[in-house]
Design brief:
Length: 740
């Protein structure tokens, strides 16, 4: 994942902001189950009573509670409960039973609340037991009656609290000590439940409408939950938007960097990567990185934060069912491990299969005319079918593994849900757990399981993205062999004279040199032609001039300046290069001719087309220079394509023209007319022509004869016909002795 994130490092501040928002979202989503628990346990079961101690209490009831308190505990109560200024008495008349004391429990600190609760719960439970009609209370009342010498008949006729009020301090302390020893054995939750019942009864005594009180509590909780849910929604939307925008930006930036890197490649680096592989790396691989970045924050980062938060909630929960979550997590981990072991190898080879698929598709589509001419359709269809089938099988396997995960995870989640409800029900029956707490625990458990599910899904996707990131890095980190020097300079004005000074060249990793000791000068205003058998190094020689390759030994200079000391951009501005294969781009005829000089006027475009002998077929088209050119120039013939490529170089008006076997698709008449136009319009330029036909180069000022990468002849046509055997053989194979 760090490989993928490395592409987004310049947007680190966005990443940090998204992570902070995710913490806010997790906090909101983990808070909602607590509110749900409170609605069930407090709002429904306790009628909206939140605390086991009353926020308001009558003077009479408070006096009853203080019967069961020590002097120090009474002081604590007096510290917190203050007279209500809105009660019916000013407090001077102690006989007024409507006198009310208040405490703002919400404003108390945790320590203050615990201090007050500690002195209130036992007296509240004791008061409840002495006045309640429940079986448990009746048993307690019977024990007390026996202790003070009352029969069951007398117990029904007296108020036990009145008996406590009539006892002296010694008697009261003795009875209280005995009762409190018994009450101390009660668990905390029973004391709190008794306190809640006491508070409800006290509020009813003070004429509080408990239905309204309950609805007020439920409304407050509903508003809080709605606010938190809306906040979580907004944060989730913002996170999704920022994640998608960041992923789109990174994908754009990576594509730009990869494309820019490829554009800076020399032919040596391009040969290290197949065209289909470079296309895949610029498209599919970048899409993999973008997809992972899009889901990274919403799943990869969000899931651990959510899972960790839910685990903390479970640990701090009073449910004591953490072992059920452990069972679920172990089951999920086992499932993930199995899928990783089984499916991971397939994900790692999927990108290579996509490469192979693209390679086969590109070869078939590019070579379709040849395939049809040789009747190889069935063979190529079978080859495509094999590549497609291999990819399909791998995708079916990985898709099947992913499809198996979802129902298995749902089964685990449902089993865990049943287990939690089963265990929780027994705890609720024993009184050690409340319904709302079990519901909250169930939600937290599902959050934990879902977090592991998300992590497992990403764990399967990430390796594929990691492979894609590695493949992109291979391009970005590949060493560019031909670079501008730090002190590279511009070429000053000059005529464009080219000097090869004992140049030798070998392709990377080649055992033999392709060119050996090439030494000649191509003067401005002259035409230098290069001829030789196929594979003798003609194209390699001219490719050294624009630095598509760099020389191994010797040097090439233009106007006395070594081309390695010149900025490549400036060097190539001086050159009009027409390659062997005339490549055109989608657009119009005019846009293709203007390719080397975008600001060329229409007059310049027409002049270039006229020199290149392209006007004839251009004028035949309905839209003339605005006629559409298909991708790769597939809607024009080979000869037309070559003439447009030549016109493109002419429109640039450079100092140096290089024609690499650019006249081979032209008929003899067009070839002669084009060469005649070139001589008339390029008198001051340096022209280098690579050709196979003697007729194309007969008028050249200098002809170089290449054989096995070496110059074996140099001179004019007449000179070579006299003293160069290889040139003589080429000439005799093409033209008659009289023509020669």
């Amino acid at each position: 994942m760090f490989k993928v994130l490395r592409f987004a490092k310049d947007k680190w501040y966005v990443i940090i902001f998204i992570i902070l928002l995710l913490f806010v979202q997790v906090y909101c989503e983990l808070t909602l189950p607590d509110y749900t628990s409170d609605i069930v346990d407090v709002g429904i079961q306790n009628k909206g009573v939140e605390y086991p101690i009353p926020e308001k209490i009558s003077k009479e009831t408070l006096a009853d509670l203080e019967l069961f308190m020590s002097e120090d505990e009474r002081l604590i109560v007096d510290k917190y409960y203050k007279a209500d200024s809105n009660s019916s008495n000013d407090g001077n008349d102690e006989s007024d039973q409507n006198y009310v004391y208040n405490v703002d429990i919400a404003s108390l600190t945790d320590d203050e609340f615990d201090e007050l609760k500690a002195v209130m719960l036992l007296p509240e439970m004791m008061t409840t037991l002495l006045t309640s009609d429940s079986d448990e209370a009746k048993a307690m009342q019977g024990q007390f009656a026996k202790g003070v010498g009352l029969t069951e008949e007398q117990l029904e006729k007296v108020d036990l609290l009145d008996i406590f009020r009539q006892m002296n301090e010694v008697q009261l302390n003795g009875v209280l000590t005995a009762i409190q020893k018994q009450l101390d054995q009660y668990p905390e939750y029973m004391l709190e439940a008794s306190g809640i019942a006491f508070v409800q009864k006290e509020y009813e005594k003070l004429d509080t409408d408990m239905n309204d009180y309950q609805m007020d509590y439920l409304k407050r909780m509903a508003v809080k939950m709605l606010g938190i849910a809306v906040l979580a929604l907004i944060v989730s939307i913002v996170v999704g938007f920022l994640s998608s925008k960041l992923a789109a930006y990174v994908a754009m930036d990576v594509r730009r960097k990869v494309f820019s890197k490829v554009m800076s490649f020399s032919n040596a680096e391009i040969n290290n990567f197949s065209t289909s592989s470079l296309i895949t790396r610029c498209t599919n691989d970048v899409q993999q990185v973008q997809m992972v970045l899009t889901i990274f924050f919403r799943i990869v980062v969000f899931a651990p934060i959510m899972g960790g938060g839910a685990i903390l909630k479970v640990i701090n929960s009073a449910a004591s069912m953490g072992w059920t979550v452990v069972v679920a997590v172990v089951a999920v981990i086992v499932l993930i491990a199995i899928l990783m072991i089984v499916a991971m190898p397939k994900f790692k080879i999927m990108q290579k299969l996509i490469d192979a698929m693209n390679l086969v598709s590109r070869e078939i589509l590019t070579g379709l005319p040849v395939i049809r001419a040789f009747g190889r359709e069935e063979y190529e269809e079978e080859r495509f079918e094999r590549a497609s089938t291999d990819l399909m099988k791998t995708q079916l396997f990985t898709s099947g593994a992913m499809a198996l995960m979802a129902p298995t995870m749902m089964f685990i989640m449902n089993v865990v849900s049943v287990l939690i409800v089963w265990v929780g029900a027994s705890k609720i029956d024993m009184g050690t757990l409340q319904v709302g707490e079990m519901m909250a625990f169930l939600v937290y458990a599902m959050h934990i399981v879902m977090s592991f599910l998300f992590i497992s899904m990403v764990a399967i996707i990430l390796p594929r993205a990691a492979v894609a990131a590695d493949r992109i890095d291979e391009v970005l980190n590949s060493k560019t062999l031909i670079l501008d020097k730090d002190d590279a300079k511009d070429i000053a004005g000059g005529k464009g004279e080219i000097v090869f000074d004992h140049v030798s060249f070998a392709y990377p990793n080649a055992k033999e040199e392709a060119l050996k000791d090439i030494d000649f000068t191509a003067k401005a205003g002259q035409t230098t032609a290069i001829i030789g058998s196929t594979g003798c190094g003609k194209s390699t020689l001219v490719n050294l001039i624009p630095r598509l390759f760099d020389v191994t030994e010797g040097s090439i200079s233009i106007d006395g300046v070594d081309i390695r000391d010149v900025k490549m951009k400036e060097l190539r501005k001086k050159i009009g290069f027409v390659p062997q294969k005339g490549t055109l781009f989608s657009g119009t005829i005019a846009s293709n001719i203007r390719f080397g000089k975008p600001n060329a006027s229409m007059e310049e475009v027409k002049t270039a087309a006229e020199i290149a002998q392209a006007v004839e077929f251009i004028d035949e088209k309905e839209k003339k220079y605005d006629s559409e050119v298909a991708q790769g120039g597939n809607n024009v013939s080979g000869g037309q394509k070559q003439r447009l490529a030549i016109a493109r170089a002419i429109a640039k008006k450079p100092n140096i023209y290089i024609f690499d076997d650019s006249f081979s698709a032209l008929d003899y008449k067009t070839d002669a007319a084009l060469r005649r136009a070139l001589r008339q319009n390029m008198k001051d330029a340096t022209v280098i022509i690579v050709a196979q036909r003697i007729s194309t180069i007969m008028q050249a000022d200098q002809i170089l004869v290449l054989e096995d990468g070496q110059i074996v002849g140099k001179g004019t046509h007449e000179e070579l016909m006299k003293n160069n055997e290889i040139y003589q053989q080429i000439a005799e194979s093409q033209i008659s002795q009289k023509e020669a």
